[in-house]
Amino acid sequence: MKVLLIGDGARENSLAFSIAKSGRYQLYAFSSYVNPGIKENVDKTNGKYFVGDILSKDEVKRVISQVSPDFGVIGPEDPLFNGAADAFREEGIPVVGPSSKASTIEKSKVWMRNLMWKYNIPGRLRYRAFNNLADAAKFVEEYGGSIAIKPSEQVGGKGVKVVADIQAYLSQEKRRAASRSVDEIGRLVKDEVKIIIEEKVDGPEYTLHVLTDGRSFLPLPLAQDYKHAYQDGIGPETGGMGSISGPGYTLPFIDEDEYKATFEIVKQTAEAIKKETGDEYVGFISGQMMLTELWGPTVIEFYSRLGDPEASAIVPRITSDFGEILELAATGKLNKAKLEVDPRPSIVRAIAPLGYPLNRDLAKGKEISLDLPKMKEIGCQAFFGAISLYGGKLITTGSRALELVAIDDTYEGAVKKLDLCTSLVSSNTKLIYRTDIGRTIEEQVEKAEIVRYSYKDRIKRGVLGASMDWSPNGGLW
């Protein structure tokens, strides 16, 4: 069978790896540049690699007509927003990926929040949306509670600001500084609605990815993403500098009941999307969650695809035929899928060239080399991200270049493997990466225990999800 994979990053490399490993499929790929990891798996299955504009629906259709695939898999969000999945379905080809209408769950935070409130989905936050930046800035300065200020649409993990009123004597100055950032955030957004302001919550974050064919739902193991660029969670937000997953289906700080409650939230959301748009949701829908005292499992945002780098933490742990599972999802037979998972935990460490994420021009055009055979001996898997194969060399394209993955009996063991494998990567520029990923588990366990005590007490008192009015004018609404 022929499979056409759309995308060019480390997530797509992990998907290509699992499809090729199946032995059942001939892999074709359509990327904006030649990713060496994807190409290796395409060549392994005697497929073909296409390069072009993956954001163009017409270009996607052109490649579909040349390949005539049995089904497709779409990795990134932007092709989904631009109708890549619609292109497959219009050609009568099954595909793993929601329609452009259904993928609005990720594209628009305002649409997502509206949907959760309309269908009474647990884990929802109160919010205000603004298309006038001056009104948003005024709200930030005048409101007396803790808030999160976000761009209203998906802008690659950029632009989130948080104002927490902990020290009253600094409050007004913090608000004035935050109100000035509203204009900066608003400039990232193309839609009419520019800014969404949400009530701030706190707790450990995690992600649940669910694969669905519109009728059956298959939850994957949890993962946690590390967004900030530098050690110990400081610096600008990125697409993700690393991830952890396991042991088993949960994480050390999330219990089975919380996993089940999170799955129910994601499932209800997929069902609500169908009611709202009329489109069956087929593909991945992923809840970016936080365990909070307000709700327990609480929605921060949704993805309409597999997360990156979360995919690199999850996919290598899947021991059953993940290529076949993707086929079953695309063709409406997911109820037949059997998911088997390595119980051991995994850690992903992303490596990026100097300049990422704030100066991507500086991060472009740098050469990277790595000793893949030695990494394999140590026990690491390398997935290629923003690296183009050019003239036989590995050249950076400006974002996260590599994702190194290690699976071990313990997080400590995985960290040791990653430390050894990272030393086998070299470049003609400075490389940035975080060595703290997977090393703060106990802190998160302690934080989760405090939050768990609080939200379970709310359940006993019958006030789960209830919060005080947090606007000086009579509430957020």
Automatic annotation (TrEMBL):
Domain of life: Archaea
GO biological process, one term: purine nucleobase biosynthetic process
Domain spans labelled ATP-grasp: 113-331
EC number(s) stated in the UniProt entry for this protein: 6.3.4.13
Keywords assigned by UniProt, alphabetized: ATP-binding, Ligase, Nucleotide-binding, Purine biosynthesis
Pathways involved: Purine metabolism; IMP biosynthesis via de novo pathway; N(1)-(5-phospho-D-ribosyl)glycinamide from 5-phospho-alpha-D-ribose 1-diphosphate: step 2/2
UniProt GO MF annotations: ATP binding; metal ion binding; phosphoribosylamine-glycine ligase activity
Ligase in keyword set: yes
Ligase keyword on record: yes
Family: Belongs to the GARS family.
NCBIfam families in alphabetical order: purD (TIGR00877)
Name the record gives this protein: phosphoribosylamine--glycine ligase
Protein's organism: Candidatus Aramenus sulfurataquae
Gene name per UniProt: purD
